[in-house]
Input
Amino acid sequence: MRAFVKGGLAALLMSALASGAFAAEAGPADLAIAQSLATMLQSARAVISTNQERINDPALGDKGLSGAAVLEKAIANYRQATGRDPNTIDPASYEGRLIRAQMDAVVEVMDTNQETINAKGKGFKGFIPATFTRLVNEAFEARAGKEASMKFTAPPVLIRNRKARPDAFEAAAIRDYLEKADWPKGQIYSAMVSEEGQERARIMVPEYYVPSCLTCHGDPAGELDVTGYPKEGAHEGDLGGVISIGLIPQ
Output
């Protein structure tokens, strides 16, 4: 599933973290940390989204999108969305450790992919927001270990990368809650579950298609998009994906 190909901060803000309207299963601290992590991921992805034309410009070499440069822009987006500076979060706290692991993951992914991003003479690089999101989540989980998990998934019919397939919990949450016509748009779904003998807070942050997403996911259904996948025929406001977060209950 791929979204926000050209969307900027407006797409970030539209991805709908509900303010105060949560499924009352995980505790307030867990939901606040999940919201913080989801917003940082969206803030960084928005930088990649707004720079897609630059990334795919075959005449331009250095795109100016080093890890440090992207993180700086992501932090600015995060501040705008939350009113907080992530650097001021206590680094010894659970949230502080996770948000720093996430920011370090953003830097790692960008610095590792500089050769691809800066390749001259090549147009479409394949370094799209969905790819960036997956790589950042993988780098984050490598740092977080058993402390937390993050994944971008979607309704099964929208999955294009097998690594993004929802697990049993995610599939049920999407089917039984997030996809229902009466589910309040933007409301987070959460539940406390037992995994490998440990209690976990599982938190699902829904995201919805904005106009920029429909370049690849809209009409006409079946037409191949720029990446070679058939479009899904989606419409603005449809559920397009979910940021799935697992936390140690606080």
Remarks:
- Residues 149 and 158 are 22 Å apart (CA to CA).
- The longest strand covers residues 198-208.
